[in-house]
Specification:
This protein is mostly beta strands. The protein has one helix and 14 strands, in the order αββββββββββββββ. Strands 1, 2, 4, 6, 8, 10, 11, 13 and 14 form a nine-stranded parallel sheet that branches. It has a five-stranded parallel sheet with strand order 3-5-7-9-12, with no helix packed on it.
Length: about 170
């Protein structure tokens, strides 16, 4: 006879409540062609670039970094991110380069469109929200030792046509 404890059920329910949904989209055919902007146009931030609520930052397909080598799989904070999105902010058309520890952090429901991660250090995208829906459309990640998307908190995250290689966890 199999017995399942309440603690086991609670852990499974908690994991299911914080899942990221990866759904197909009819918007365009999937492609795994990662952009490769010229290094002469690279943008290095000394601190996380904040994007305010309601604001859209169009990265114009340039490469963005923090100018630091990856420190491995230790959890960083908002201060280590390349972009820090407030609740309701949008980041579009950007390439996150390899010289960073954390890619994009969302402090509430956010929208991420056509953002590419060349070499994922800790996590490409970290979403911290208590409710609502964050949407990731297009873009992709490669060389992720850990997770591409980490969702902490409530609500949900929807990912459409997010490509990654080699296969990793989302």
């Amino acid at each position: 006879m199999v017995q399942v404890s309440f603690a086991t059920i609670a852990v499974i329910a908690g994991m299911l409540a914080q899942t990221t949904v990866a759904a197909p989209s009819d918007k365009r055919a999937a492609s795994c062609s990662f952009p490769n902007p010229s290094s002469s146009t690279d943008v290095k931030f000394d601190a996380a670039r904040s994007i305010k609520a309601g604001e859209t930052f169009d990265g114009k397909n340039l490469r963005y970094s923090r100018g630091v080598k990856c420190g491995g799989q230790k959890e960083g904070g908002d201060k280590d991110a390349v972009f820090l999105l407030e609740s309701g902010a949008t980041l579009a058309n950007a390439v996150i380069g390899k010289d960073q520890n954390e890619g994009v952090h969302c402090k509430g429901p956010c929208t991420i469109r056509n953002v590419w991660f060349e070499d994922v250090c800790e996590d490409a995208i970290t979403i911290r929200q208590s409710s609502g829906t964050s949407t990731i459309t297009g873009g992709g990640a490669k060389n992720a030792d850990d997770k591409v998307v980490q969702h902490n908190g409530g609500g949900q995250s929807d990912a459409y046509q997010l490509r990654y290689r080699p296969p990793t966890s989302i």
